[in-house]
Amino acid sequence: MKNYAKKISKIPALIFLSIVFIISIFPIIYIILASFKSNAEILTSGANLLPEKFITDNYVKAWTLANFKLYTWNSIYMAFFIVIGSIFTSTTIAYVLQRGKFVGSKFIGGLFLSTMFISLGTSSLFPQLQVAKLFGLHTSLWGVIIIRVLGINVTQVFIAKGYMSTISKEIDEAAKIDGCGFIRIYWNIIFPLLKPLIATIGLLSFRAAWNDYMLPMVFTLAKPDRAPLVVGVVNLRNSGEAASAWNLMLAGTSIAIVPMLTVYLFLNRYFIEGLTSGAVKG
Amino acid sequence: MEVSNPTKLTVNKAGLFSRFLKVIKKDDNIPAYVLMAPMLLGFLVFTIYPIIYVLRWSGFDYDGFSQAVFIGLENFIRVFTRDSSFWNSVLNTFIITIGKMAFEIPLALVLAVLINSKSKVNNFFRTFFFMPTIISMAIVGIIFSILFGSYNGIVNVLLVNLGITADKINWFGDKWLSLIVIILAAVWSHYGITMIFFLMGLQSVPKELYECADIDGASPIQQFFMVTIPMLKPIMQTILMLAIVEGMKMSDLVLVLTNGQPGGQTEVAMTYIYKYFFPTDAMAGGLIQYGYASSLSVVMAAIIGIITIIYLRLSKNMSEV
After folding, report:
1. Where do the domains of chain A lie?
2. Contact list, B114 vs chain A (CB under 8 Å)
3. Which CATH number fits domain A63-281: 1.10.3720.10, 3.60.21.10, 1.10.8.60, 3.20.20.70?
4. How confident is residue A281, by pLDDT bands cut at 50, 70 and 90?
5. Is the Cβ pair A271, B130 closer than 8 Å?
6. At what angle do helices B49-57 and B290-314 cross, to 10 degrees?
7. Does the first or last residue of chain A, that is N or C, have fewer Cβ atoms within 10 Å of its Cβ?
C-alpha cells in the first residue's frame, strides 16, 4: 500500500520531466522533419510537424546546388586536423606541466591560468587574423586549425593534467633508471596509458571544431567556398535569397547537426563527463 | 636549485656561464621547453598578442590604411561620454546574463533533484536533457529564428491555435520580445550542462544527512531547502561563475538570431565590438575603426575582469560547506 502511494506521488514529477523532455527535443525534431517538406509547404503551413509528402529533393539540391557538399568536406577536414592536433598538444602540455621539473614551471602554469580571467571574446579575432595574414593563412581554414591546435585550450589541459596525476610516478622513475629521457618517457610510456583521456579530449575538440562559428567565419569572409557547415548555413540564411532557399537552409541545418547528434547518442556518457569535469577542475 | 656558496661569490665570467649551463642541463629543462615550444609560441601569438594589440591601438586613431595617429585617451573619452549605443549593448548583456541565470539555474536544480537516483528512466531523461548542449550556438540561433518566425513560425501558430494570443506576434520587431527569445534560446542550449553540474554536486551529499532528516521528521520539501541547497554551495559557486563569464562573452547566438535588430537595440557587447572590427554598412557607417574597437575591447575586458573579481570576493565563503 505504501509502495503504491509512493508511485502515485511520482506522477507530477514525471509529467514535469516529460514536458521538459518534449521542449528539449522538439526544436531538433521539428527542424529535421521540416527539412523533408517542399518550400511551398514550409512557407504556408509551419504548424504541421509531419510533412504532407516526404521529399528528399532538398538534400539533393543543398548538396549539389548550394555548395553543401563542399561545406561538409570543409567541416570534416577542419574537425579532423583539430581533433588530431589537440590530442597531441593538450596532452603534451599537460605532461610537461604535471611531470616536468624545469625552471619557470610555476610561472608558465600561472600564465595559462591567468588568461582565464582576461576575456577578450570576439576582440581577439581581428588580431589573430592579422597574425595569420603574415603567413598567408588568413583566407584558409588552416589558420583556424593552427589557432585551435596551438592556441592552448585551457579546459582540455586541465582535464589532461587531472588524468595524468592519477598515473603513478613510479613508472616514470623506473623508466628513468633504465635510461629513458623526458621525451621518451612521454612518448613510449605515458602516452599509451592515456586512451580514455584521448577519447575525452577527442570528443571535446570534435564538438568545439564542428560547432565553431566566429573564427572560421572570419577566416572565410573573403572565400565563402572554404566555409565549414555552420558558417555555410548562416551565410545562406543571411543571403538575399533566404526566402526562396528556406528548404535548402533546413536541409543544411540538418546536415550540420545530424552527425553531432549521432556521435552523441552513441557516446553520450563520455560527452557528459568530459564537458563537465574540465570546468569544475579549472 | 643549489644554494650558492658565499665563498664562491667572486667567480669569473666563464665560471658563471658554465654554472648557467649546469642549471639549464639539470632536470628536464631542455626537453620540457622543446616539447612546449610550439604551444608556447601559439599561446604567445594567439592569446597574448591580441591582448597587447588592443592595449596598444586603443590609444590610436587607426583604420588600417592611413597613418595611425596617437590620440591619447580620446578613444576612451568617446566610449564613456559619447557612445550610448555601446552602453546599451552592455546593458543588454547584463539583462541577458541575469535573465538566463534566473531561469536556467532553478530549472536545472529542480531537474537534477528529480532525476538524481539511478534508474533507466532517469538515465534516459539525462541523455536527452543534455542533448541541446551539443548543438552549435550559431545553429541554435537559426533554429530559434525559425521557431519564432513571425509569419509561419510554429510558436506563433501554436499560440494562436491555443487561443493564448489573438494575433501572431512579431517576435523580432520589438527589443524586449527579441531579448526574451535570446534568453530562451540560451537557456535551451545550456541548461543540460548546469543540470549535470548539480547532479555532480548532489552525488557528494552524504546519504546519512537525509536519513537523519528523515528520522527528525523533515518532509521532502524541508529536506530540499535545509539539506540539499546548503550542501550544493560549492558547486553553485562554479555554476554562477561560469554563467556570468559565459553570459558576458555571448556573441554567436545574438549575431545569428537577431544580429542586433531591430535597429541595433539587441546588440550585446561582444557583437557590438565585433562590428567595429569587421564593419558592415549597418553600423559605424561601414568605416573601419580599429583604434576605437580596441578601446571598446579594453573597456569590456576590464568590466568582465572587475565583475569576476568582485564575484570571487563575494562568493569566497561558498567554496566550503
Report:
1. 63-281
2. 13, 16-17
3. 1.10.3720.10
4. very low
5. yes
6. 120
7. N
